[in-house]
Each structure stands twice: as C-alpha cells, then as structure tokens.
C-alpha cells in the first residue's frame, strides 16, 4: 500500500510467522483482500506431530498430515500469499512497522506481523513490547519490561518463561501496534480446526485495520468474504442507487473524509458487493475447478483405482 509519495516503504503489508492452520487461514483472508502477504514456515508446525488428522471438517475419513499441509499451502498460494520455507529468528521494530529477520534469507520489512507458531512460541518476538503491559493495561506476569509477553513460573526448582497465551485480545490484536497473535491463543491452540478459525478471525481483524488505515470510517471498515448466486441479487438490491443509500447510512456523521474520497470509498464498496454475485455458469466453473485442484493432492494410483471402479460400474449398468 503506497504512501502519499506513491511509493511503498514496506516490502510487505503483512508477514505471517508460521504456516500451519492458524497462519495460513489468516494469510488467506489478508491476501484475498489485496494485502501483500508472505508466510514464513519452517516446516515444523505442531500439527506435523500428529499421525493422522481426524476431526477437521470436510475429511470424513480424516486426512494424512502431509496432504493436509500441502492443501494449506496450496490454498494460501492460490489466495496470493508467498510461502517462504524459512525460520524467522527475530521480529524487531523498524523506522516504521517491523523488520523480520529469517534464518537464511534477507530481512524484510512489514506494516503488520501475525505470529502464528506454537513451538518456541514468541521467542522471536522478545523485546518488542517494552511497555510491560497486558491488553487490559495491567502488568504482565513476567514483571520484566523486556519480557512483557512472557509469563514466569517455577518448574523443578528452575525459573522458566513461556509466551503468555492470554497476551493478545480475542481478535489477535496486542498492545504493540501492528502486531497480532493467531497462535498460541489459549482457548484454541490445541485443535487444528479451532486454530484455523481463530486465524481467520485474526486475518479479518488485520483486514479491518488496513481498511481503517485507508480511510474507511468505522461503519464501513468491517469486512466479509463470500460469494452469492446472481439470482439472489433481485429487487431493490439490483439497483446501484439503493446500494448508495445503504452505504450513505453507514458513514458516521462526524467522518472527516472529503466528498470525493467518501464517494470513492462508497463506489468501490458497491463494486465489491456486486462482484460477490456470480452466475450459475461461473459457479459451475468454480465447482469443477475446485474439484480438479483437490485431485492435485490425491495419490495417482487411487485416482486410477477409482476410475477403474467407475468404469466397471458403468459396464455393469449397461
């Protein structure tokens, strides 16, 4: 997103640290909204400790972890994310935004960072929060200004520190401006499907923050991402002037936008809403393409075996 000079001071709008369910889910939402998003994944997501994933909706017989992980990354890449197989060693404050330093590649800058790792959770974030405050404004458990994100406890006679899974708010936001946490998050971290859902919520919060930064007033900053059949765009909602009335009602009375900027935002939102409706032919095209893409992740021998069974059934019916 360029500044007033027409240049972008950042390499990326969003850097996601961690390519598991939480990180990829967040990245899909940010990238689909046009935010330049890169996911750093070291290939050691906690889900890879599972032998087989059996409680993730959409896989009636479960899914092997390798296939599931490939599907996550394929979806993120299709949405527009760059997936980089590298370990992030540190995230630091830059002149603006953040400087993200991976283990192997060059450091990159980002407006916002989403932390989405459970192993060594938050170690790469040490030193970012020098305020020593929790989201509620109280002192954190560590009591150390340099370790405000960490809680201290005694174990087997030793003092240990762990990232505080309650550090971030429910939408992932933190006291550090531009830093979001998708994982670890206490209520959701242990289950992949819950982590993915929370990642989506965090991604949505980042999208809304970016929209506010672009000048969208509070009544228009909220965002959802879905498509509907064109047949449902009927009556008054097929009329662009009705949508203009709809959005005019959502501009707060005290907004400070110029009339030209307000009109630009309104018309852009109407275009986006209209684009959410697709024809039956387009829906069918997407259905077939979606199934073809799934075939990319199915073992070839199984595809051939299924094809032979289908052919045998057809011959029997004939």
UniProtKB/TrEMBL annotation:
Pfam families: Pyr_redox_2
Keyword Cytoplasm appears in the UniProt entry: no
Chain spans, region Disordered: 126-145
Keywords: Flavoprotein, Oxidoreductase
Ranges for domain FAD/NAD(P)-binding: 12-117
Top-level taxonomic group: Archaea
Gene Ontology MF terms: oxidoreductase activity
InterPro entries (UniProt xref): FAD/NAD-bd_sf, FAD/NAD-binding_dom, Ferredoxin-NADP_redctase_2
Keyword DNA damage recorded: no
PANTHER family in the record: THIOREDOXIN REDUCTASE 1-RELATED-RELATED
Listed name of the protein: FAD-dependent oxidoreductase
Organism: Halolamina salina
């Amino acid at each position: 997103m360029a500044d007033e000079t027409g240049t972008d001071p950042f390499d990326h709008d969003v850097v996601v640290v961690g390519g598991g369910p939480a990180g990829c889910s967040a990245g899909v939402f940010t990238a689909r909204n046009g935010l330049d998003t890169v996911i750093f994944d070291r290939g050691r997501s906690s889900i890879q400790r599972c032998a087989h994933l059996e409680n993730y909706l959409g896989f009636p017989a479960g899914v092997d972890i390798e296939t599931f992980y490939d599907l996550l990354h394929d979806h993120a890449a299709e949405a527009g994310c760059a997936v980089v197989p590298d370990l992030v060693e540190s995230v630091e404050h830059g002149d603006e935004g953040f400087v993200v330093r991976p283990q192997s590649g060059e450091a990159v800058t980002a407006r916002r960072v989403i932390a989405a790792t459970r192993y060594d959770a938050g170690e790469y974030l040490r030193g970012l929060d020098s305020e020593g405050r929790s989201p509620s404004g109280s002192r954190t458990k560590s009591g150390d200004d340099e370790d405000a994100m960490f809680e201290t406890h005694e174990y087997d006679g030793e003092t240990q520190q762990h990232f505080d899974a309650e550090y971030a708010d429910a939408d992932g936001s933190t006291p550090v401006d531009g830093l979001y946490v998708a994982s670890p998050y206490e209520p959701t971290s242990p289950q992949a499907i819950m982590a993915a859902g929370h990642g989506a919520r965090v991604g949505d919060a980042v999208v809304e923050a970016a929209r506010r930064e672009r000048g969208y007033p509070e009544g228009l900053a909220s965002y959802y991402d879905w498509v509907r059949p064109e047949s449902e765009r009927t009556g008054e909602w097929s009329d662009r002037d009705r949508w203009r009335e709809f959005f005019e009602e959502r501009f707060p009375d005290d907004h400070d936008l110029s009339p030209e900027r307000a009109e630009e935002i309104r018309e852009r939102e109407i275009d986006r809403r209209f684009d959410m409706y697709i024809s039956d032919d387009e829906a069918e095209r997407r259905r077939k393409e979606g199934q073809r893409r799934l075939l990319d992740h199915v073992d070839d021998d199984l595809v051939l075996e299924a094809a032979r069974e289908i052919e045998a059934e057809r011959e029997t019916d004939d």
